Amino acid sequence: MVENTTYTFEEIHQQPALWLEVFDLIHTQKDALTSFLGDVDIDSEVIFTGAGSSFFIGEMVAPFFQKDTQITSRAIQTTEIVTHSQYHINRNKKTLLVSFARSGNSPESVAAVNLANQFSSKVRHLIITCNKDGALAQMKIDNGFVLVMPDKANDKSLAMTSSVTAMGLAALLIGRMKHLAAMKIEIQNAADLIQTFFKDYDKALQKISNVDYQRAVCLGSGPLQGVAREAHLKIQEMTDGDIICKFDSFLGFRHGPKAVVNDKTMMVYFFSNDDYARKYELDLVHSMRKSHAPVLSVGISNVPLEGVSLDLHIDLSAKKINEGIWTLISLVPLQLLAYYKSIALSYDPDSPSKSGAIHRVVQGVTIYNLSNKNHNGSKS
To answer: Closest Cα partner for 227 from 136, 343, 325, 308?
Structure first.
């Protein structure tokens, strides 16, 4: 079957084993990372950055990094740092800029590092990349640490899959380096859970890929909104834009965006482990059934759901796992759903862009020199 001969299929399915390799990498690098991060304290700020999927990783992990370290953490796109670094880099505050990049060859990735250094002398750089030979990994900077993911994380296909969860997991582990032993158990449970998912839900995902939907809306609360954002991009990328996608939070979706739902829309719900947040999520699902019934509804949860009507509930509640780990692995079902929809629409999942509009590494971006007057001040 074609699905077994693509890089994308392999890269989605290799993730459980890859996560254990990432754990071993962080465990091996623990002392070096601890030494490098020694000056990053409660008075510092952590900025997670990247473009596209690499930025969405930051949205997924920044809340957990802040909770675990008590250091203010946020996600900002490299594209924003390139055009508006003066609004995002506080030259008076110690800053750790964590750059995520699969290839490390996107022009904005290198430019964001250079501009941050140009703008402030108080920036340190943690580069998390999947390509040891990429431009980002090869940068010669005194205030940086390069962490290269295991080779398998450097996806060959256009869409980022295993690279996303591998880099995200690395960041979560760095935030919890004092608790690595407990995290290994969590990762093993997550790996087992996703292996079970592959066995139990593969046929169901293939089946719903034949449903005729033209729009997809992905919803998630809190850090899961980053997952929803990445999921919406996966579906859109792998179908070359045939499926128009949106993302939002459950509550935010009520404030206007709900208007996009019609009888050709698939709704995808990423349910939180948090009981309080999930009350609002379930209210929205019930509301959709009453007033804006989509053609297809899919839910992914790490807890049992009662009284919820879904066309497909991917119930991964066999093992309750850490909320941060759940946030990352909840993305895997939608990677596979997007993959099968790509095949159903006769695309090549490895290279779905027939028009050539999108590439594995972004092209056509010119980086311009930035003068001090553009900074509205000089570096201190």
So the answer is: 325
d(CA 72, CA 358): 34
CA 43 vs CA 39, 70, 74, 153: distances in Å: 10, 10, 14, 33
CA-based torsion, 319, 323, 328, 332: positive or negative? positive
- From first to last of its 380 residues, what are the pLDDT tens digits of the chain? 344 789 999 999 999 999 999 999 999 999 999 999 998 999 999 999 999 999 999 999 999 999 999 999 999 999 999 988 888 888 899 999 999 999 988 888 899 999 999 888 999 999 999 999 999 999 988 899 999 999 999 999 989 999 999 999 999 999 999 999 999 999 999 999 999 999 999 999 999 999 999 999 999 999 999 999 999 999 999 999 999 999 999 999 998 888 899 999 999 999 999 999 999 999 999 988 877 678 899 999 999 998 899 999 999 999 999 999 999 999 999 999 999 999 999 999 998 877 666 555 555 666 677 765 455 544 54
For residues 99 and 325, what is the distance between their CA atoms, to the nearest angstrom?
20
Prediction pTM value: 0.93
Q: Name the token pair of 225.
A: 């909104």
Kindly tell me the sign of the dihedral angle through the C-alpha atoms of 149, 201, 63, 24. Answer: negative
Question: Given 3-state DSSP classes, what are the helix, strand and coil percentages for the chain, each rounded to the nearest 5?
Answer: 50, 15, 35
Contact between residue 315 and residue 269 where contact means Cβ atoms under 8 Å apart: no
Residue 31 burial by CB count (10 A; 0-12/13-18/19+): exposed, middle or buried?
A: exposed
* Ordered domains of the chain (ranges, CATH): 2-175 (3.40.50.10490), 201-344 (3.40.50.10490)
